[in-house]
Each structure stands twice: as C-alpha cells, then as structure tokens.
C-alpha cells in the first residue's frame, strides 16, 4: 500500500514548517513508523537538521529517510519515497508556487501552521485557496502559541468563518522545540517529559487519526 503524504505549507515565512516537519518525523519514527522526509525548501534547514542527526544521533536517521528534491524531480522522488515508507512529510518553501502546488496536489492532508496573529491569519489565504483548487483537505494548527491571552480564541473564531478545520492540538511557544533541533533530535528524544513533547504527540495522534493510520 502506498504511503500517506502530509504537506506542511504556509506562504508566510517563519511559521515553523521545518520544525514541525522534523518534530513529527521523530514522533512517528519513535512510534515504529517508517517515515520519509521530503525537503523541497531551497533554504535547506531541514537538511541541516538531518545532517546533525546522522552525525550525533544515528547514522541511519533513526528510522527517517530524508530526500531533497525540486522542480521536475519532485514528483518522481515523492513516488519513489512513498514505496519505501509508511508516511511522507513534505517541508515546502514559502514562495515557490510550482513546487508547492505539486506537493499540495500529491498530499492526503495539508497541514497549515500559523501563529495566532492577524498577519499569519491573512497569510494563510493563498495556501488554503491552493488546497481548495487541488481538492486537498487542509488542517490548520496553531504554532508558537503564547501561554496566556485571548488571541487564540479570537483567531479561532475568524477561521471558523472560513470553514477550515483547526487542529485541537496546539503547539506552544517553547524553547524545547528549538533546543532539540540543535541536537539533531526531536523534543520526544531530548526531553520526553516536557510539555512540548505532549503537544507534538497530541498533534501527531490527531493527524494519524485523520489519515486512518493505525
């Protein structure tokens, strides 16, 4: 059976796509899944993290297969990767419509991270419109969320008007996520009892349920 694919997309830079891709990959791999990471962002941040992971954690990537691709190679590499894993997570660039459209079209779910701010909310428009045109289901997730304040509820109400599903799981604005990335790890590995670990596991479970993954 071909693997499921999740594209993490957001037109606004700095939304935390790469961090979420890496953290989800580690979480699923530690749960026993064969995970593929496909990096189509020319910035290469995910590749840098994976290089650290191979050097410091596990030279096989700890159950994570990593591939970089762009342009005409993207579809071919994605199909090849899907034959060898259970789940593919695609880290997309903020501004590269051709590559992002291919990744959105190929995905079983589009994960759209956003900080609870008006700027991020407005920036989701092009990504959500692309998902609609490609008939790909989207799920928005709050990332780098402050521990206090009513802004999340206000933004949730605005999103509800657009009839776009929002993940029940929320990722807080936690240093633990970035600290684990510096070590080539996920927070599940570096700090298994941290609140950040509970948050990423909850999001991973929510995504798995939507995809019908056991």
TrEMBL record:
| Matching SUPFAM superfamilies | P-loop containing nucleoside triphosphate hydrolases
Q: Which domain of life is it from?
A: Bacteria
What the entry lists under InterPro entries is as follows: CobQ/CobB/MinD/ParA_Nub-bd_dom (IPR002586), DNA_Partitioning_ATPase (IPR050678), McdA (IPR048089), P-loop_NTPase (IPR027417)
Domain CobQ/CobB/MinD/ParA nucleotide binding residue range list: 6-185
Q: Which Pfam families match?
A: CbiA
Q: Write down the NCBIfam families for this protein, in alphabetical order.
A: ParA_partition (NF041546)
Q: What is this protein called?
A: Cobyrinic acid a,c-diamide synthase
């Amino acid at each position: 059976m071909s693997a499921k694919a999740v594209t993490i997309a957001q037109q606004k830079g700095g939304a935390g796509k790469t961090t979420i891709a890496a953290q989800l990959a580690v979480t699923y791999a530690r749960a026993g899944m064969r995970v593929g990471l496909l990096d189509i962002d020319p910035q290469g941040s995910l590749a840098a993290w994976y290089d650290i992971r191979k050097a410091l954690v596990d030279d096989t990537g700890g159950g994570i297969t990593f591939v970089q691709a762009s342009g005409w190679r993207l579809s071919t590499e994605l199909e090849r990767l899907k034959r060898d894993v259970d789940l593919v997570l695609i880290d997309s660039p903020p501004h590269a419509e051709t590559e992002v459209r291919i990744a959105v079209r190929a995905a079983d779910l589009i994960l759209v991270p956003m900080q609870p701010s008006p700027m991020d909310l407005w920036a989701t428009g092009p990504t959500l419109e692309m998902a609609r045109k490609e008939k790909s289901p989207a799920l928005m997730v709050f990332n780098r969320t402050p521990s206090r304040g009513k802004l999340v509820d206000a933004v949730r109400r605005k999103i509800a008007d657009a009839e776009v599903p929002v993940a029940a799981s929320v990722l807080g604005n936690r240093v633990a996520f970035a600290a684990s990335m510096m070590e080539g790890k996920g927070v599940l590995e570096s700090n298994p009892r941290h609140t950040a670990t509970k948050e990423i596991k909850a999001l991973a479970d929510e995504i798995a349920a939507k995809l019908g993954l056991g």
